[in-house]
Please model this.
Amino acid sequence: MKCPVCSNTLSPYDAGSFHVDICRDGCSGMWFNKAEFEKCDENTEPFPSELLRVRKAPNVLIDRSKKRDCPECQTSTMKRVILDAEKRFEIDECLS
Model:
């Protein structure tokens, strides 16, 4: 899958009970489908701290005002979820 922000190839990450696709060496974006995001959002399943340390490549510009299409289903616009406003940590979630 290609990142809808910077066209980098997304890398799968297995977090145990859920799977997420990460834009490593690009914009550092992460994409969850609905079931994946719900699993990591539960109180019993904390968000893996290593995902909070994925760094954005310095030359990648991110247009935060632009809506993003899901790189998996390619038919839905994703929902943006801000997990940490101070660090500008956001997740785009496909609701399909």
The mean pLDDT is 81. The CA atoms of residues 2 and 9 lie 5 Å apart.
